[in-house]
Amino acid sequence: MRELSTLATLEGRSVIRDIFRELRFDRQMSSFSATMLMWRMCTKETDLKRFSVQEVHILYPLGTMAGTSLWLQEIINRFYYSTINSFVYFGAAILLVTVGLRRIYDTIPDWMVVASISLEAILLGMMFFIMYFSPLDEEEGDEQSNADRSREFGELLREVGEISRDYAAMAVRLEQITDAMQEMSVRQEALISTTRDSVQIAAQAIAPNPELIETLKQTGDQFKSFNVIVESLAQSAQELRKEEIEFAVRRELEKIIADTVVKGYVHKGE
């Protein structure tokens, strides 16, 4: 049986990784069970033979603090880094979609946006925490892997910044579109008001005016009265003319009679 002073040595770290692979892939233990069992081994277990085929005895357990740090470095960071990174990307996607929908639809409540931002902040904090406990790499290839992870994390932060910048540009564009739509709405209301006034004026022009009808009626009555007066005047003029004719005939007859009488007296005298 091999004896190790602590699991913090290079050999102890290699043993931890081998045991985790055995539990996960050979024994097909669930991810959560294997991870928690590895935390138990890193913090307080001394005889690892009970959990693995490797006959290893630990002289000095690391305890809770140092064991948890080792567990984060050798198990969480090495085997779950990609999973956590995927969750960070997923949180960024949720944040982008939620904020975008919030700018378009007012029915999206504010708490959903706050929850998305909080989720992304928690995931980024978790990513920082995992990156802080990067394992001590004993090989050049592991150093390169750590550098790659650091570069990936930097790219992730840069992409999150680009997403935020795109969101800001989209927010500005949506505000411009909103202002343009409001201006269009004001113009449309003004056009509708003008059209309504024009329709009312046209309707008033087409529809008969009660005052005009009353005036026309009064004018018609006055014309009728005028016609009656004109007819009366015409009748009076005819009567007057008839009287004048009769008076003229009477005068002529009187002259004729007077001349006849005078001539008769003259004839008798002769």
Question: Secondary-structure blueprint of this entry?
Answer:
Elements: E1 2-4, H1 10-26, H2 31-43, E2 56-58, H3 63-104, H4 110-132, H5 140-206, H6 210-269
Parallel strand pairs: 1-2
Spatial gap, N to C terminus: 208 Å
Overall shape: it is: rod-shaped
Please give the count of helices.
6
The helix-and-strand class reads mainly alpha
User: Which blocks of ≥5 consecutive residues have pLDDT under 50?
Assistant: none
Helical coverage, percent range: over 70%
Number of domains: 3
Number of strands: 2
Strand content: under 5%
Which whole number gives the mean pLDDT? 78
Q: SSE order, as H and E?
A: EHHEHHHH
Q: Radius of gyration, rounded?
A: 59 Å
What's the story with the biggest beta sheet? 2 strands, parallel
Q: For the largest beta sheet, what order do the strands appear in spatially?
A: 1-2
